[in-house]
Amino acid sequence: MSRNNLQLYIHLFFVTKYRDYLITDRVESKLHQFLWNKSLELGLTPLMINGIQDHVHLLIKIPSTITVAAVVKKLKAPNSRFLNELTQSNYFEWSRGYEAFTVSKIDISFIAEYIRNQKMHHSNGTVNSELELSSHLLPKG
Questions:
Q1: Which residue from 17, 49, 51, 114 has the least number of CB within 10 angstroms?
Q2: pLDDT of 75-104, one tens digit each?
Q3: How many domains is the chain built from?
Q4: d(CA 116, CA 9)
Q5: Do residues 78 and 118 make contact, with C-beta atoms less than 8 angstroms apart?
Q6: Residue 138 pLDDT class (50, 70, 90 cuts)
Q7: How far apart are the C-alpha atoms of 60 and 76, rounded to whole Å?
Q8: Structural domain contains residue 130
Q9: How far apart are CA 24 and CA 93, in angstroms?
Q10: What residues contact 50, with CB distance under 8 A and at least 6 apart?
């Protein structure tokens, strides 16, 4: 085989500092669009981005040339600056940690649909604990 065929899908999850409700209706769509565009700029393939007031989920396809840690670093820091400039404040900050899970190609549709329906899951109690933050893994702040 003379060609590589890599299909590396990652479900990323990160939260606001102190789990504060910083992702307001005013900035939510701009945040998601920024993450989408930044993903493309980094050579990633974004498949779904959504979340609620204190966290965001991303389903992305990554190339073999970038690590998950580098992806997170290159997504989180620039969008914090972007949101602080957008809101003309200095309040927006992500928690230092994150979670990342590999996703089988067969599960992409399921994970994407789950991410798409974040608000519904959180409002009606149908949150899937395996697809949400393991709060004990992230330090507060």
A1: 17
A2: 998 988 888 888 778 788 888 889 999 999
A3: 1
A4: 16
A5: no
A6: very low
A7: 14
A8: no
A9: 13
A10: 32, 56, 57, 115, 116, 117, 118
Q: Domain range holding 29?
A: 8-125
Provide the β-strand partners of residue 59. Answer: 11, 48
The full length of the chain comes to 141
Residue range 7-62, pLDDT digits in tens: 999 999 989 888 888 898 888 999 999 999 999 999 999 999 999 888 899 999 99
In a domain, 40, yes or no: yes
Beta carbons of 12 and 115 less than 8 angstroms apart = no
3-state class (DSSP) for residue 103: strand
Q: What is the CATH number of the domain that holds 102?
A: 3.30.70.1290
C-beta of residue 80 within 8 angstroms of C-beta of residue 93 = yes
Contact, 30 vs 116, CB < 8 A? no
Strands ordered across the beta sheet of 45-52: 45-52, 55-62, 8-15, 99-103
Query: Is 20 within the bounds of a domain?
Result: yes
Residue 138 lies in a domain: no
Residue whose C-alpha is closest to residue 35's, from 10, 56, 11, 65: 56
